[in-house]
Amino acid sequence: MTLYKSPVAKNIAVVIQEDPRNTHRPVEALRIALGLVAGSHHTTVILLGDAFRLLTEEIDDIIDVDILEKYLPSITQLKIPFMLQSTAAQAKVRNEFEVQYTTDENIRAFVRSMDCALVF
Asked: If the chain, 120 residues long, is cut into consecutive pieces of 10 residues, what is the mean pLDDT of each piece?
């Protein structure tokens, strides 16, 4: 008789570096991160450059904004942690998200410490 072994939760970083105003990939990356969290992995989303716009009030010019609006309540409810560059426009980011601002060096060290990193 073979017993089913549940997979061990992994530490995963989802790095989003593309501008969500130019491509659908950042919204798709958030969907993937949401699925990883639901699968009990320890997932942190890292937003680089203009990707921070995913967490602002001004999302009308984001590609796939209708899909993004569906995911945001779940992301808030699950308290998915976000890391943003300290140079991001902090005043624009909505306060209901779990956001940590840090240096590029700390972000690099964090990503290297993960079991897996998905880069978009």
From this structure: 61 97 97 90 95 94 96 94 90 92 97 96
Q: Which range of residues forms the domain containing residue 58?
A: 11-119
DSSP assignment letter at 17: -
CATH of the domain at 43: 3.40.1260.10
Q: Which tokens in the block code for residue 86?
A: 């300290």
Name the H helices within the chain. Answer: 25-38, 65-77, 104-113
CA 56 from chain centre, in angstroms, equals 13
Question: Cα separation of 49 and 35, whole Å?
Answer: 24
Of 30, 68, 22, 23, nearest to 47 by C-alpha is 30
Q: Mapping DSSP to helix (H, G, I), strand (E, B) and coil, where does residue 109 land?
A: helix
Total tally of structural domains belonging to the chain: 1
